[in-house]
Amino acid sequence: MMTSVDTDLIRVLADPLRLRIVTLLAQETLCTTHLVEETGAKQTNLSNHLKVLREAGVVETEPCGRFIYYRLQPDVIASLAGQFADLAKAARATAENNVKRSCP
User: Fold this and answer.
1) CA 82 to chain CA mean position, Å
2) What pLDDT score was predicted for residue 6?
3) Measured between alpha carbons, how far is 57 from 10 in angstroms, rounded to an integer?
4) What is the average pLDDT score of the chain?
5) Residues 21-55: pLDDT tens digits?
6) Cα atoms in the 13 Å half-sphere on the side-chain side of 100
């Protein structure tokens, strides 16, 4: 059984600021102004990171007057968690069965 993890999504979430944004959005839906206050990042920098998260499908937007609110897509995070769970399960089976390739 070959198990793989979505490396593109890992790259998106590997950035510390993007991971901080995702962590904040797991708690509540926030607008850019809130995220600037919470992270201390400049608005333009934050907007660029939000664009990456949006394009990766990690967050969705909701316009509200002159503000845009961001909401985390839990299914994307759950899918990634499931991929890591599958990887852990395979590693556990390999360790328990002492699976190793013979050297030539």
Assistant:
1) 13
2) 83
3) 13
4) 92
5) 999 999 999 999 999 999 999 999 999 999 999 99
6) 6
pLDDT at 39: 97
End-to-end, the C-alpha distance of the chain in Å comes to 23
Task: Specify the amino acid at residue 50.
Answer: L
Radius of gyration from C-alpha coordinates of the chain: 18
Tokens of 9: 């999504």
HEC secondary structure over the chain:
CCCCCCHHHHHHHHCHHHHHHHHHHHHCCEEHHHHHHHHCCCHHHHHHHHHHHHHCCCEEEEEECCEEEEEECHHHHHHHHHHHHHHHHHHHHHHHCCCCCCCC
Residue for token pair 């994307």: 76
